[in-house]
Every structure is written in structure tokens, then in C-alpha cells.
Amino acid sequence: MAEQNVRSSDAAIGVFDSGVGGLTVLNALRAALPHENLVYLGDTARVPYGTKSAVSVMRYAEQAVRALQSRHIKAVVIACNTASAMALEHLQATYPDIPVLGVIEPGALAACRQTSSRHIGVIATESTTYNQAYQKAIINLMPDARVRAQACSLFVALAEEGWHSGELVEKIIAKCLQPLLEAGGEGGDMDTLVLGCTHFPALGEAIANVVGPDIKLVDSAVTTAAAVSERLGLAGLLNKQSPAGTLGFLVTDGPERFVRVANNFFNETIASASVELVDIQHYSAT
């Protein structure tokens, strides 16, 4: 049974990811909800989730939520596509008294609203692509949509190393996207591409240069932030205090590397002193 969580409007929103990619979601939350207190947990000891089994990801995700609950949070945002695909329903069932939101449903909804041709592409990690989470979510919303997905796990390394632009980066992106773009070219009408990994927005400009102006990119971070705002508003949990919200960071390994790599994803400078090393494995999952 989940621990009882006492919620109040000034409690923090807990955000977790396997590492640093979820900081793109934190950016969007910070912009959309500037008065909210935010606690970010990066499970850097076990990154990447994209190569792990569903059982392992569900266990990791539950440990992350339990660790965040110890910080008296009022909501959870799964800022990881793999964890959203594999653990969202489990977490929502395990913690019925706290809003738990993922990034896939908001991204799928944004893609469906944006497309005119109903031909949508998705790029993600291997596990998210194999799980078909975006494909299923899009078809559920738009049954006559055509959805093609391509695994682009190499983009994660590019993003984390700060290789975000330039001729070489665009050549790598073009090579990785070639199967998707050639398949999309058969109909000539793919007009929407979902960035199905929270690392990928860091490469957004380079990806846009490769796919061209006729294909619009969907960043699920922005739509997720809007969904969080709506959900908290309906629950009467929006923080309406005037001061800017606080930020806290938890990592399970390598806080120094986290601070260094975070500069590639987060719009604000993260002070080393604000990053706490925690062991979440003792938060046993049920």
C-alpha cells in the first residue's frame, strides 16, 4: 500500500527521470508554473532506463516516487518516456491519492492536434519504440492516423555530450532518420514528428534542419507542463503565492557529472550545493 501523502498547495511537485534528460521537462514546468516548488530526482546510478526490462523500470520508478514522497510532494511527473511507457499505470494504481502524470499522453495529444495529414512520425529510445507507447496513444486518440516510429538511441549520447548542432551532428541525425524519412516519403505527407525522448529537445534545431520546414516537431515537455497545470488547477493544488518557487535536485550517483551535463539541458545554472546524493534503493517497492 502506498504511503499516505499529505497534500497542500505549497508542497512541491516531484519530477523524476533516469538521468538528466528530464531537465527539459523541468524547464517547461518552471516556465509554465513559476511559483511552484520543484524537486527533481535523477536516477543517475541506473541510467539508462531504455535498456532495462519493464519489471526493473517499474521497480525503479516506485522507488523514485517513494523517495520523492519523503519530501512531501503533492504530485509526480514522470519526466522519462521509458518510465512513462512502462510504469505510469502501475504508479497511478499504487498511488491513487496523488496525481501522477507521464509525458507520453500529452505528447500524443499535441501530435494529433498538430497534424493535418494524420501521418505522424515518432523518434524515441529503443525500448519506447519497441513498447509502441506513442503509437498506441496516438491511435487511441486518432484511429485513422498513420504512425511510424524510429529508434534513435544515439541521440541521447549526442545530447549529453553537448553535441547539439553543426554539420557533423546533422549528418548523424540524417543517417539515423533516413529509414523513417524514406518510409514517410512513400506517402509524401508526414507532417509531424514527435520527439519521444526527453533528451531530444536539446537537438531540436538540428533535427528541424534535417527534416525540413514541412515537418513540425512536437516537444512533449511543453504539453506535459500544461497538463500538470490543468490537473493541479482542477485539484485546487496550484501554488498561488507570489514568490518564485524553489528548486531541489536529488541524484543517485555522480552529482559532479550531473551538474556538468545538466548545463546541456537546463536553462538555469545548477549550484553543486543544491544537488543531494541519495540512495533510493532502500525505498522498497511493493
From TrEMBL:
Pathway membership: Cell wall biogenesis; peptidoglycan biosynthesis
Catalytic center residues: 80 (proton donor/acceptor), 197 (proton donor/acceptor)
Sorted UniProt keywords: Cell shape, Cell wall biogenesis/degradation, Isomerase, Peptidoglycan synthesis
GO BP terms in the entry: cell wall organization; peptidoglycan biosynthetic process; regulation of cell shape
Enzyme Commission number(s): 5.1.1.3
Single Gene Ontology MF annotation: glutamate racemase activity
UniProt cross-references to InterPro entries, sorted A to Z: Asp/Glu/hydantoin_racemase, Asp/Glu_race, Asp/Glu_racemase_AS_1, Asp/Glu_racemase_AS_2, Glu_race
Coiled coil: none
SUPFAM superfamilies in the record: Aspartate/glutamate racemase
A Pfam family reported for this protein in Swiss-Prot or TrEMBL: Asp_Glu_race
Enzyme class: isomerase
Known catalytic reactions: L-glutamate = D-glutamate
Record: residues binding substrate: 17-18, 49-50, 81-82, 198-199
Role: Provides the (R)-glutamate required for cell wall biosynthesis.
Similarity comment: Belongs to the aspartate/glutamate racemases family.
PANTHER family reported for this sequence: GLUTAMATE RACEMASE
Name the UniProt record assigns to this protein: Glutamate racemase
Originating organism: Marinobacterium halophilum
